[in-house]
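README: folding subset

This subset contains proteins for which both the sequence and a predicted structure token string are available. Records are stored as plain text. Below is the entry for tRNA modification GTPase MnmE (437 residues), shown exactly as it appears on disk.
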Amino acid sequence: MAEHNDTIYALASGSVPAGVAVVRVSGPTVRELTIGLVGVLPTPRRAMLRTIRTRNDLAIDSGLVVFFPGPASFTGEDVVEFQLHGGRAVVDALCRELNTFPHTRQALAGEFSRRAFDNGRMDLVEVEGLADLISAETEMQRRLAVEHSNGGLSALYSAWASRLTRGRALIEAELDFADEDDVPGSVSDQVWDDMELLSTELDQHLRDADAGEIIRDGFKVVIAGEPNAGKSSLMNALVRRDVAIVTDIAGTTRDVLSTDLNIDGYLVRLSDTAGLRHTEEVVEREGIRRARQEIARADLVLYLEDRSVVAQAHDVPAGALRVGTKGDLQPGSQGTYDVIISVETGEGLPELRQLITTALLSKVHVQSLAIPNRRRHKDSLTQCVRAIRTALLDSEKPLDLRAEDLRVASDALGRVTGHVDVENLLDVIFGEFCIGK
Ligand SMILES: Nc1nc2c(c(=O)[nH]1)N(C=O)[C@@H](CNc1ccc(C(=O)N[C@@H](CCC(=O)O)C(=O)O)cc1)CN2
Ligand SMILES: Nc1nc2c(ncn2[C@@H]2O[C@H](COP(=O)(O)OP(=O)(O)OP(=O)(O)O)[C@@H](O)[C@H]2O)c(=O)[nH]1
Ligand SMILES: [Mg+2]
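--- output ---
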């Protein structure tokens, strides 16, 4: 049903009603369809004000029409955009009319980008960057997504892919034509030097993957501690809203409750959890299980302890910030705590915020935003660097097997961008050596 060569259309702008709505159309019948609706094919890439009419010559709306001839368009196909008045019925009327054209249907989710990818307009990293750009809510998410969607990361990967391809080509050449004069001896030595360098660069790059994931998915801060420590009260104070239930009954919170914060342009995902204690109560036990799971996944744990209760803190997770609570009830020295707070007086809250910010900044500190930001990237790049390392490890191994390791590395890198890398291997062989003569 969903034919690949259909012409597809969709509302590309946000929900109606709105000031202006953009309906985007892409596919092989865009030219006829545009002439049918507005009478002419507008000058490419110039906004033109036209009345858009049905077959029966009824005006749908008058709006701006922009025609992008393929392949120099977003999808690589002919594209036309109608910029209409953003009313529900206006958009519906145009979509209804578009549907009456042959082989023309509503686009599936992501189908414009899918076509852009299939037509080589974007690679996978750029497609992912575009998706991230659309869902970005904080400034740093936006900067990371722009870097990726504009090809900043892809440029790095294609440079690395070329080095791998060149290395393989030189080794293949040495294997195939070792007895001929044209191939300089020990070229493979240079290759291995460069592969050594490449593996170092990949290692360095992979070290930034955690920062990339934190910028994209948020810095996960988990509030943990014994029941009644004041966890939910702190959650409410930090987000300045009454999101979590607070009572003096120990064991109030059971579910994990998460709220997003924006700190210095970074997304911070704050979670309130059930108080940790031994209990036979089924619901609370499940809450505590979830709390522990959340703690295990945290980038930062705030471990809260009620200073007015004499208790020995156990269960403090490694690396947690120790927060003494209810500072108003019992003034005293800071002791083993990183900070003492009171949600009643506000004491210590600015200091705690600063501690969170410092922990966050230490984890997202990077030189460039051309960094991996998905598990998928990290996994494939890890496979890539492992394969290079395998090739380097045993210099006594036959050259063809070492070349095979490099092929595995190329494929792993190619999976990140969605490129497959075989055809240009030949190009490089024939390009660098006058083998054919
Ligand atoms: N109206 C409108 N605004 C939009 C988009 C769109 O599709 N329509 N975009 C959609 O996401 C983004 C811009 N992305 C685009 C990417 C490439 C081309 C394009 O036509 N590229 C050609 C020509 C480039 C040029 O003239 O320099 C090319 O790359 O060959 C258009 C939009 C954001 N703003
Ligand atoms: N005086 C004082 N009371 C506080 C402070 N913070 C919390 N409380 C009180 O301590 C009690 C428990 O607070 P919660 O925030 O519900 O504690 P919790 O850690 O979320 O508790 P559970 O969800 O049961 O694990 C409530 O009665 C709060 O009003 C504080 O800074 N000063
Ligand atoms: Mg609570």
